Amino acid sequence: MNARVMIVVLFFVLLAWLVRGLVVEVAARRERKTPAPKPRPQVPGETDDNPLAVPTAAVVETRLDGQPCRRCGTPTRVREHLARQGLREVTLHCPHCALDATRYVRITTVH
Q1: 97 is in which domain, residue-wise?
Q2: Helix, strand, or coil here: 107?
């Protein structure tokens, strides 16, 4: 075998060995750095079985408008406000990441 060919082959073998070692090291670092997912705390209004309580329908939008987005933290805007099965279903929209989130509200009127 020609000496030049031998050098080129050895170069590529060495390069492949180095790249493989780097890939394995990066994967091991990612594995070490990835924390276990933490459970999110239950916030009133995120589920229909734990609605946010408000005194009147007039304060629903003012109470929810500007809540931070759960994905990026940007203040959200109320997109839609519907009455469903004794609850108010409010759709919040994040102008930054375009996430739509639903919040549930129960009107607690005192007689």
Answers
A1: 52-107
A2: strand
